[in-house]
Amino acid sequence: MLLIDGYNLLRAVQNLTDQSFNITDIQLCQIIAEYLYRIRKKGCVVFDGIGPRDKSGFNNLFNLEVIFSGTSHEADDIIEKLILENTAPKSLIVVSSDRRIKTAAKKRKADAVDCVDFWTGLIKQLEKKKKAPAEPQSKFVGISEAETEYWLREFGFIK
Predict the structure, then answer these.
(1) pLDDT tens track for 37-93
(2) Cβ distance 56 to 14 under 8 Å?
(3) What is the pTM of this model?
(4) Cα dist from 153 to 86, 134, 143, 144, 157, whole Å
(5) How far apart are CA 146 and CA 89, in angstroms?
(6) What is residue 117's three-state secondary structure?
(7) Is the Cβ–Cβ distance between 77 and 49 less than 8 Å?
(8) Are 95 and 113 in contact (CB under 8 A)?
(9) Which domains, ranges and CATH numbers included, belong to the chain?
């Protein structure tokens, strides 16, 4: 499972990309959800604050849970709590550039991944084209003379 420091990743992505393209928190989550779908994993993104008024863009992200910390907590507090409560921390991947979060992850033997490294890997994965299943050789060669003769007889073209 991936546990992501939302605004930490969002700021890193915005610094990496062209400033004219300002990715939103909703767009970020949709991209992450697509990535998780491709690698067949689940994840959780934690953002500071209450988030946008209209949260409908976060709907239908079946493999990604989105949490807003609210006004009385920081995202870092919630992420630390989730790391501590995780029953399989060795299979947990924590994405953040925050030293505090990375330290909490390492204490539980979870993988701590820097935001830039995570985003670079995510983009590479999404740019890979899905391989189409291999076509059978017979499709390109055609049927044999014996098969052709059989079907011509079957349909009454020859006796």
Answers:
(1) 999 999 999 999 998 888 888 988 889 999 999 999 999 999 999 999 999 999 999
(2) no
(3) 0.77
(4) 68, 32, 15, 14, 6
(5) 62
(6) helix
(7) no
(8) yes
(9) 2-133 (3.40.50)
